[in-house]
Amino acid sequence: MDRVTSMAVFVRSVDGGSLAAAARHFGLSHAMVSKHLRGLEQSLGVRLLTLTTRKLALTEAGDNYYRRCLQILADIEDANREAMQLQAVPRGPLRLTAPVAFGEQYLAPVLVDFLERYPEIVLDIELTDRFADLAGEGFDLALRIGRLPDSSLVARRLGASRMLTCAAPAYLARHGTPAHPSELAAHRCLYLNGVTTPGEWWYEVDGSQVTVRVDGPLRSNSVALACQSARQGLGIVFGPAFALEPSVAKGDLVPVLAGFSSGALDIHALYLSKRHMSKKLRLLIDFLASRFSRPVGTDAV
Question: Are residues 67 and 9 in the same domain?
């Protein structure tokens, strides 16, 4: 007898509370259902069910076997579903969210290429610097840069973004240019919540990474707001290169501490579950991983 079919008959008998329930579900005779169950018990060498004229009950071995059968049958169903999806053209909507500056400068051209490859997929994109609630707001995917809060979400690393330390020429003219990370304590520093640990920046000094305590008049979760504040001379900003380099290119900001590497921040894709991931979502994540395999920003490492 087919073992998987026998397991399915066993589970249906337990769920339905009788052999008759399994017989009706599978279109089998009562005798054939009994044959499936006897075959399982004989092959396992244990008693799975206790049968009376009025009641069906699981033995201890049967209860354990029932739970394992549920998982095995679910895995088989998932495998069949995935196999069928591979034959289907990926189509339909995907909702994703990403940081504003990263989305506008780096993500947009990548998604255009993705849609050209998979024209039946429709992307619904929200660019925001806040941490959206994937389940509550109906997002399939979120891109995050920097520290990840503790959550039940699945995270896959896609790549990294270089970090830069910058200030406006006017600020440096008034307050001087720091020559060493330790001198930042005497400066007005603008830092990003959710990207770095509040009040802490890091640099490589003499071959070792050191953490520098900083303080200043502005804390924000918005890269754009911090960048604009730095351009207006409010202080020194430490943030992802992709957000700061356009202002550097225009001369609105000047890199400082260029001789001290700040490493990179990880870029992650966050989603709800590996178990029930659709083919189109898996394709998108794999595509993003391939395109962001090199660090984003100037002086990529």
Answer: yes
CB-based burial, 33-66: b 16+ in 10 Å, e otherwise: bbebbebbbeeeeeebbeeeeeebebeeebeebb
Say whether both 216 and 233 belong to one domain: yes
CA gap 204, 272 in Å, rounded: 35
The pLDDT value recorded for residue 284 is 95
Residue 297: what pLDDT?
A: 63
- 199 conformational bin, left if phi > 0, alpha if psi -120 to 50, beta if neither: left
pTM over 0.85: no
Both 270 and 135 in one domain: the answer is yes
In 3D space, the residue among 152, 159, 63, 114 whose CA is nearest the CA of residue 280 turns out to be 114
Query: What is the count of structural domains for the chain?
Result: 3
Residues 130 and 169 in one domain: no
Residue 296 inside a domain? The answer is no
Cβ count near 68 (within 10 Å):
10
Q: Is 280 inside a domain boundary?
A: yes
Q: Please choose, from the candidates 146, 182, 180, the residue with its C-alpha nearest in 3D space to the C-alpha of residue 161.
A: 146
**In degrees rounded to 5, what are phi and psi of residue 120?**
-85, -5
pLDDT for position 15: 87
Mean pLDDT by 10 residues, the chain (301 residues): 88 88 88 90 90 78 91 88 72 91 87 94 90 87 82 87 92 94 93 75 86 88 86 93 88 92 86 81 94 67 32
Quote the CA–CA distance of 247 and 222 in Å, as a whole number.
16
Q: Comparing C-alpha atoms, which of 133, 166, 156, 182 is closest to residue 247? A: 166
**What pLDDT does residue 53 have?**
60
Residue 272 structural domain? 92-159+265-291
